[in-house]
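Quick log. Single chain, no ligands specified.
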Amino acid sequence: MATHECPRCGSPKATSVMLPPAKGSHDARPHPAFRCMVCDTQWADDEQWARLHEGHPTEQDS
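-> predicted structure:
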């Protein structure tokens, strides 16, 4: 099983979750995402995380 490190706190303790489709989406299927079991951050992939958190400092930037 691949490990998925949290992009916020770096913890390898993440669980997979299924998210409902976005409002207005033509794709009615749920999609997989990850949720950190330490800080409760949720992300679908690295690109989505970067897009959603542009301009927000991370702990690594501090």
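The beta strands are 14-19, 31-36, 42-43.
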